[in-house]
């Protein structure tokens, strides 16, 4: 007998989603004011770092090309996330269309993934600088760094994110969610697992190289060159790992706030770390401010009375 054809149920696309993550959290408007200040500071700080690197020819090295790309990615990341979150929550625009939701998800995840890859490139730069100091200039070239950055921009454009939010979105569906669960797991491994494993391996190599340095002062001096990058790694990875490890025991409101902070705080803190902990950028700022002051003084002297 001929078996009846079983038709696959048609795909039903929702017209909109309701973003309800911040609904019901007490005094949440104070958090959004704080969020607004963080965003402004992040935009100003990362823009300042990029301007300093562009204006100072001495900073056009492979390391600072990566720092420029990190600042640029941080600027785009905070700009993709914070304005939309403020629009949703402050102006009660909780309804978001299907296409806009997926677009929001795509850009958030892509830019956050690029941040992780930038930290990988910076760790590679630090390994080469400490393990092969005499060959650093020949091995780590601008062409190599630009190729790594271009690879990072290309390879992280095919995944989904938790912002609009990937987990709650696929759980809304009535079909089998196993493929979505697998994709989410692979995305976490690719975005967090592989970069973190590479960075840990890099610092194991750096630690081995430091142990071969004869004097303690030289070891401390070499390690100070890595403190800025280590701070960035800690700021990026530790909050995310904390949220995912303690996910079952964290209150839902605290979990939502922590997840938003893990994406907002690094773009604000990265320029502070590089300005305060990087001697080259501090000296560059002094030179630029001194040159600007001298230019104003010359204009004032030449101005007719």
From TrEMBL:
Subcellular location: Cell membrane
Topology term for the membrane: Multi-pass membrane protein
Alphabetic keyword roster: Cell membrane, Disulfide bond, G-protein coupled receptor, Glycoprotein, Membrane, Olfaction, Receptor, Sensory transduction, Transducer, Transmembrane, Transmembrane helix
Transmembrane parts of this sequence: 30-55, 64-83, 95-124, 183-210, 230-250, 256-276
Gene3D superfamilies: Rhodopsin 7-helix transmembrane proteins
Listed PANTHER family: G-PROTEIN COUPLED RECEPTOR (PTHR24242), ODORANT RECEPTOR-RELATED (PTHR24242:SF359)
Matches recorded under Pfam families: 7tm_4 (PF13853)
Name this polypeptide is given: G-protein coupled receptors family 1 profile domain-containing protein
GO cellular component entries: plasma membrane
Source species: Astatotilapia calliptera
Keyword NADP part of the UniProt annotation: no
Domain of life assignment: Eukaryota
Annotated G-protein coupled receptors family 1 profile domain residues: 45-274
Keyword Nucleus: no
InterPro entries linked to this entry: GPCR_Rhodpsn, GPCR_Rhodpsn_7TM, Olfact_rcpt, Olfactory_GPCR1
Gene Ontology molecular-function annotations: G protein-coupled receptor activity; olfactory receptor activity
